[in-house]
Specification:
This protein has 119 residues and is mainly β. It is built from one helix and eleven strands, in the order βββαββββββββ. The chain has one helix at 29-32, and strands spanning 5-7, 10-12, 18-23, 36-42, 49-54, 60-62, 70-75, 80-85, 94-101, 108-109, 113-117. Strands 2, 4, 5, 6, 9, 10 and 11 form a seven-stranded mixed sheet that branches. The chain has a four-stranded antiparallel sheet with strand order 1-3-8-7, with no helix packed on it. Strand 4 (36-42) and strand 5 (49-54) form a beta hairpin.
Length: 119
């Protein structure tokens, strides 16, 4: 299991922006680059859903509802993955979880950070 520490959540008005960060402080660089890093979210009363993932080379994929508004990126030297969120909508309100995935190993999860989009 990998320790993941998220930050950057908060309350924002519709149309606003937030940037989430997730650091893996105890991983060494060479290990970190092996992982696919991702963001998931869970809204009240709903299942956890995938938001975006990025591999070691920077190849990213997104769920349809966030395409064009969210950007995932990673800085391997800092062992950190980011989620830049723009044009936020009330339906983006959820707890956002960082995920580290490696084939053949159990996924690791952060504790989550709350994002609330409301006027």
């Amino acid at each position: 299991q990998v320790q993941l520490v998220e930050s950057g959540g908060g309350l924002v008005q519709p149309g606003g922006s937030l940037r989430l960060s997730c650091k893996a402080p105890r991983m060494i660089f060479s290990e970190y680059t092996r992982y696919v890093m991702g963001w998931y979210r869970q809204a009240p009363g709903k299942h956890r859903e995938s938001v975006a993932q990025i591999d070691r080379s920077g190849n990213a994929n997104y769920t349809d509802s966030v395409k064009g508004r969210f950007t995932i990126s990673r800085d391997n030297s800092r062992k950190t993955v980011f989620l830049q969120m723009k044009n936020l909508k009330p339906e983006d309100t959820a707890v956002y979880y960082c995920n580290a995935a490696l084939r053949g190993s159990m996924d690791s999860w952060g504790e989550g950070t709350q994002v609330t989009v409301s006027s």
